[in-house]
Amino acid sequence: MPDRFPLICSFLSSVWPEQPYEISAISGDASFRCYFRVCSGGKNYVLMDSPPPQEDVQRFVAVQQALLSAGLKVPVILHCDVAAGFLLLEDLGDQLLLDLLTPETATDWYRQALAELVKVRAVRSTIQGALPPFDRAFLLREMQLFIDWFVKVHLSIELTNEELSTLAQLFEFLADSALEQPQAGMHRDYHARNLMVMTDQQLAVIDFQDIVVGPVSYDAVSLLKDCYKRWPDSLVTQLRDEFFKQLQQDEVFDTQWDSTRFAQSFDLMGLQRHIKVCGIFSRLYHRDHKAGYLADLPRVMNYIADTVAIYPECQAFSEILQQKIQPRLLEVISCGR
User: Fold this and answer.
1) pLDDT of res. 54
2) Between 1.10.3470, 3.30.200, 3.30.70, 3.30.43, what CATH number should domain 23-90 receive?
3) Nearest residue to 215 via CA among 270, 275, 274
4) Whole-structure pTM over 0.90, yes or no?
């Protein structure tokens, strides 16, 4: 149990002053938050421990209310102590969408998940005000993690000034592409580990507190080019094209956009995300001592390599990748990291 366990017990005792309860750890995530299952009176609940000042419970509450108002299934907040960083939530169970995905079921489940994005896109503000924009500075800051944590720290590579210039040009190109898209509410981590399946087969959304306003394809890319599970390109292409057709019907895109332009923008959005993720997974290991994400780095790197091989604007980076980064990653993996 964490150092905050006495505070947790005090919070739960305030909720049930004369009723016993049992508590067990569920998991943490890629943040400072921890989750516990609490059983009291024959019912299960989930306790979210978000230690201040590292985590902002008020933002979670505000986003939860906005998503609920938009028609999304999200965990109901039953009790909270904002100052201490505790929320007692509805227990949505343990059935992650990821565990139900097979080659036979993936298409239908992903269509359902993509349909839910209509509601996410509608959310542009909370009771705290307008959502932050996923703007150029935000995009570039995320991609810089690739250099700072993945290349320099995890791979122990020092890039030359010319190589750094190549990456800077690539990052600007990817930011330009992202900002050309229509902007809408964006979950930022919409994938099969953050979607839960209810007993009625409805999807519930979790880990939503980092929502922003950003490129309309981002969440679909996060879902279909999942960092934790890769699907055949044919399936991704089919679902991507269906998603674009729906966006066209909803008049999200103007007539200057066709399926070819959207496909390229979709790929480049995925490239931005996967570049960022390499940095985040490395930081989780080296700074936060969370090694569980290292096993996913080769998959993410394969996404990157496959995408940069397609587009001429990415060729200089592709060469750095092949000559310097990928060989070094194999060396690091062979050393057990």
Assistant:
1) 84
2) 3.30.200
3) 270
4) yes
